[in-house]
Amino acid sequence: MRKQGAMLSALVLLVAIPFFQQTKGLANQPAQQADQQAQEPAPPKPIVIPPEAAKKANPVKPTAKSIEAGKRIFDIDCAMCHGENGDGKTDLAKSLGVKLPDFRDPAALGSVTDGGLFYVISKGHSPMPNEDVRAKPEEIWDLVNYIRSLSEKKAPPKTK
Ligand code: HEC
Question: Using one digit for the tens of pLDDT, what is the confidence trace for 138-160?
Fold first, then answer.
């Protein structure tokens, strides 16, 4: 009987020790970082735009009014990651470990159609949230028009 009891506590210890090591590991920094690295998929998933979405024509003309409306939404919903000037060099992007396109560079989105931009902004691309839950389609087209305006030679319209 005694012997069995001792064996049982030995068994409990064997199970318990790795468990304790694990919980201890979670509390200290290097182990936590290693944990995060293990969870992070190495290359970010490429953005896939369905061909029908890419073909969708932009129904909203890039008027000053549309571009200004887009800028207002961008400053609130997008600038924290993409930067107020659209260059994508923000602390949040850095801490999320993502490299964002510079919207001021005409080459950055040159191959993406307006319909494609509408799709990506609507559906999001982790960690980018999907905008279709908080903006109407017309407002998302305003965002498309605003982003396009950033890579044009002229400065974006002043809102003041
Ligand atoms: C949490 C950070 C975050 C926020 C907020 C965010 N984005 Fe993004 N955005 C990203 C990431 C990450 C990508 C993908 C970069 C990559 O993989 O190339 C991206 C990509 C894009 C692209 C490029 C699409 C392409 O085809 O290359 C556009 C356009 C864009 N975002 C617009 C927006 C707009 C407009 C908003 C606001 C409504 C917004 N983003 C909000 C993180 C964010």
Answer: 999 999 999 999 998 655 566 65
- Please, which residues have CB within 8 angstroms of residue 24's CB and are 6 or more apart in sequence? none
Residue 32 alpha carbon to ligand 1 centre in Å: 27
Ligand 1 pocket, residue 81 CB under 6 Å: yes
Kindly state if the Cβ of 124 falls inside 6 Å of ligand 1.
Answer: no
CA distance 144 to 104: 13
CA of 41 to the centre of ligand 1 (A): 18
Residue 128 Cα to ligand 1 middle (Å): 5
Would the CB of 144 count as within 6 Å of ligand 1?
no
Residue 79 CA to residue 157 CA, distance in Å, equals 16
Query: 118-125: which pairs have CB atoms within 8 A and are 24 or more residues apart?
Result: 118/53, 118/56, 118/58, 118/144, 119/49, 119/50, 119/53, 119/54, 119/56, 120/47, 120/49, 125/45, 125/47
* Tens-digit pLDDT profile for residues 20-71: 445 444 444 555 555 555 555 456 788 999 999 999 999 999 999 999 999 9
CA-nearest residue for atom 10, ligand 1, is 128
